[in-house]
Write a structure and sequence with these properties.
single chain, 126 residues, 2,3-Dihydroxybiphenyl 1,2-Dioxygenase, domain 1, 4-stranded mixed β-sheet, 2 helices, globular
Length: 126
């Protein structure tokens, strides 16, 4: 098997899909698209993605099988300048848990919490 990225997809679980959609569209300045679920068990909004490109794609998911909240997994969104997007987090009703800080040669990150209680990261090279 050819070497590939460890993450192929992510789900961010939410209680209020519309509130979460508005939050991430505001912070990332991107439109999330409705996405079908072949099982009919969840309602989803997908983040913009090119499935054949570098990185992982994912969606906000409202499901009876999982709940939002802080835990052991942290998804990092690639952004232009994590300080700018962190300010959008505050404006959209989220919390900046740890403001922009250096991770050396790998750039900068900020740790945030969305309106559903999920922790997530913002990652940039500036």
């Amino acid at each position: 098997m050819a070497l590939q990225n460890a993450i192929g997809w992510f789900d961010l679980y939410v209680d209020d899909l519309e509130r979460a959609t508005t939050f991430y569209e505001t912070v990332l300045q991107q439109r999330l698209e409705p996405m079908g679920d072949p099982t009919g068990e969840t309602v989803m909004r997908a983040f913009p993605a090119k499935m054949q490109a570098y990185g992982a794609a994912g969606a906000l998911v409202k499901s009876a099988h999982a709940r939002p909240g802080a835990g052991g997994t942290l998804v990092y969104f690639s952004v232009a300048d994590c300080a700018v997007e962190a300010e959008r987090v505050r404006a959209a009703g989220g919390t900046v848990v740890r403001p922009k800080f250096s991770i050396g040669a790998f750039g900068w990150v900020a740790i945030c919490q969305d309106t559903e209680g999920n922790l997530f990261g913002l990652s940039s090279m500036v």
